[in-house]
Write a structure and sequence with these properties.
InterPro entries: Reg_prop, WD40/YVTN_repeat-like_dom_sf. The protein is built from 18 helices and 33 strands. By secondary structure, the chain is an alpha+beta fold.
Amino acid sequence: MRTILSIAIVFICCSFQSDPGNEKFRQDVAVMHGKTNGLPEGAIDHIEISKLGPMATALGNSYLWNGDQWVKSNTEEKGKTFSVVKNLPQGSGKILSRTTYMGKVYVGCENGLFVQKPKDAWQQVLPADENYSWALKNVAALTVDSNGNLWFGSKEGIGKNVDGKWHLYTGKEGVPYTRFTCASPGSHGEVWFGTENGAVRAKNDYFYYRTSRRWLPNNYVRDIAVDHDGTAWIATNKGISQIIAQEMTYAEKAAYFTKQVEDRHNRMGFICQSQLLEQFDIATSQLAISDNDGQYTAMYGAAQAFRYALTGDKQAKELADRSFKALKWLVDITPEPGFPARVIIPVDWHEPVNEEYSREYNKKRQENDPFWKDIYPRFPLSADGKYRWKCDTSSDELAGHYFYYGIYYDLVAETPEEKAAVKQVVADMTDHLIRHGFKLVDYDGKPTRWGSFDSDYFNSIWGWDQRGLNSMMMLSFLNVASHVTGNPKYEKVAKKLRDEEHYHINAMHPKEYFPPENVVPWDNNLGLMSFYGLLNYEKDPELLIMYRISLEFAWLNVSKQKNAFWDGLYGAMANSFNEKVRNGYFHTDDLFKENPLFAKSALKEYGKSSLDPKYMKETLQRIPLDLIGYEMDNTHRLDILFDPTPGQKKDMGWRVDTYALPIDERGHVRLDRDAFDLHDSEGNGFSEQEGTFYLLPYYFAAYHHLLGD
C-alpha cells in the first residue's frame, strides 16, 4: 500500500492541462502499516505525535516512524492512563476518558460525564439541546478541538459544546456507530473518534465513517493521533492506518486513474478489471475477462472522447481510437455479420474457458436457470485460429457499443476513413438486428439469451418485463444508426416499429420498478446510456416530449443512488431538452392534436432539471484512489434505514438523509451496482476495479458543464 500512496502523491503533483474541473478538494488516501513496516504483529495499544514524529506503543515497546519504517525506540512506554481521581460520585464506574476544557477537568466514566468543581467536588454533566436530554453512559471519548470546543462520544451519541451550548448527534443526525474507544482533534476543526467497529471523522456537523480493509487493517480502533498536516494515525488491533487528506483537483484525479487503467486494466485494447493473486496486493495484478468487456471498453472510450473534446489532448485521441478499434474487432471477429462478441482472448489464455462452460455445465445450470442458453463452444475459434471469442452476447453489450459509436463519431472521428469505419460497424450491427427480426442471433442461428428486441418477445410470458426497456433501446439504436450513417432506411424502420408495434409507447415505461427482483441496477446503466442516443438524435418534437417524460421516470428511480454517471446522463439530457424549450423548438399548437393542452402541460412540468449536482460532485470527490474491492458491511450502522419495500431482499437501505451511503463507505465503486446494497463485496480483496468509474462521469460532466466553470 505504500507503493499506492507514492504513486498517487508523485503522479498528481505533475503538471496538467487546464480543465473545467479545477476545483480543489481533499482526497482521503489510506496506507496500511504492519509487520512489513517494522511493527510487531497484533494490537497497537497507543499512538501519539511526538517531536520526532508518530510514535506507537505495542507489546510494551515504543516504535518511531522515520518516514519509511517503524523503528524500535528507547523512549519510555506510554499509554492511555489516568491519574487517580478522588471523590467521584458513587456508581460513576470506571474512568474511560479525560480532558481539560476551559480550565476544568472533565472525566468520562461508564455511568456519566463529570466536571471537577472547587475542592475536588464533581458534578455530573447532563447534556441537552432542543432535541435530546441525556444521562450519559460509556463516555469513552473526550477531547477539545482546535477551535476550543469540547467533544464527547458516548453510548447515546456524540456531543459538542460550543460557548456553553450543547449540540447532540445520534444516528438520526448521521452518527454511524457509538461504541467509542477514543477521540483526537485535528488541526482544522475536525475530530476523529475511534470505535469498536471503525473510525469516525466529525467535521462541519457531518460524520465520515472509515471501516473495513479499505480504510483500516482492523476495525477495532484503540487509539488515534492527528498530526499538524491533518493526517490521522489510527492504531488498531492489527496494525496502523495512516489516512492522508491529499489536496487534488478533478483533473489530477483523472490523470491518476488514466494511468491506473493503462498500467493494469488494458488487455489488447479491452478495458477490464484485474484479479489479484494475493489478497490486497496490486503487485500481483492479473488481467481478467468479463461478460461485458465490450461495454466497459466503450465506457472508457467515451471518457477519453469527452476528454479529447474538452482538451484536445493527443493521448485522449489515441485512447479513444484504440477503444473504437477494439469494439469494432468484437464485431468483425464473428462469422455472423454484425454480431458482436462479448470477449476476445488469445488461444493460449490461461483459463480453460470452454471446459468451464461444457455441455454438462450448461445442463446443470439450466436446472436452476431455465433461460440459460445451451451453446457449445461458448468461446469459438476465430477464423485465423489465433483467438477465441465469447458468444451469447447481451443487450448490455449493444448499449455500450451504440453509446460509444455516436459519441466517437461526433467528437473524435475526423478523417473520412475514421468516419467511414464508424458508419460501417453501426450499419453492420443494425442491419443484423433488422435482418433477424430485431433479435441478436448467435453463430448457432438462435437468439442470444438477452438479445431480443421484437414485439413477439415483448408480448410473451418470457419478455413482458423487458418491453419498455428493450423498445426504448431499439429505437435508440436506430436513432444512432440514422445519425451516423445518414441512411434514411433506419428512420423508416423506427417509424414502422412505432406505427405498427407502438415501441414509442412502450418506451414511456423505460424499465421495471417493481417487484424488487426485476429492478436490476445494470438496467439503469444500459437504459440511461441508451437514452443518450435516443434523445440526442431525435428530431420529432412529439417524440422528444414523450422520451423526456420517460427519462424523468427512469431518473426518479435512481436519483438518490449517488451515481455520478447516471446523474450526469440525466442532467445533460434534461438540460438539452430545456434549451430546446427556451429556444422555441416546440410549437405546442401543432403537437398532440387530440389534446392541444398536453404539450403545454408537459413542457411546463418537464422543461426543467431536477438534478442537484452536489451529489454528483460528492461522488466524484469521494471515489477512492484505491479501487481494490473490499467487503463492506453497513448493516450495523445507526445512520441507515432498511428498505421496507415488499419483496426486497435484506440488507438493502439508505442513509437517514434518504440518499445512498457515500461511495467510499460502500462495498463497490462500479457504475452498474445498486448503491442501496448495505453488505457487499467486489472481490473481497482479490480484484481491482478499473478507473473508468471515475473517468467517464467526470469527463462527461465536465463536457456538459455540470460541474460549473
